[in-house]
Hints:
Helix content: 25-40%
Oligomer: single chain
Number of strands: 4
CATH class: Alpha Beta
Shape: globular
CATH topology: Ribosomal Protein S5, domain 2
Number of helices: 2
Structural class: alpha+beta
Amino acid sequence: MKEAVAGTLESGDIMIKIGPGEGLDIELQSSVAAQFGRQIKAVITETLEGLGIKDAHVEAVDKGALDCTIRARVTAAAVRATGKDVWKD
C-alpha cells in the first residue's frame, strides 16, 4: 500500500488520506466531531473492511460530508493506495 488522497476541503466534502499502518488507525478533524465523530469513523472503518483493508493509517478532514460522500472518498483513496480496482470483477 502506498499513500493516496481523495476528496477536497470544500464544504460538504471530506478529504481522506490513506497509507500503510498496523490495524485501522483513524485520525479525524471535524468541526462536528463531538456530534458525529463516532459515526464518521464507523463509516470509514466499515468501508475499508468491506474492501478487505485491515491495516491502514487514515487521516480524515471533514467539512460536513454525508455518509455516502465519506464512503465514496474512502473507496477512491483505497483504490489509489492499493491499486485494486473494486469496480471490476
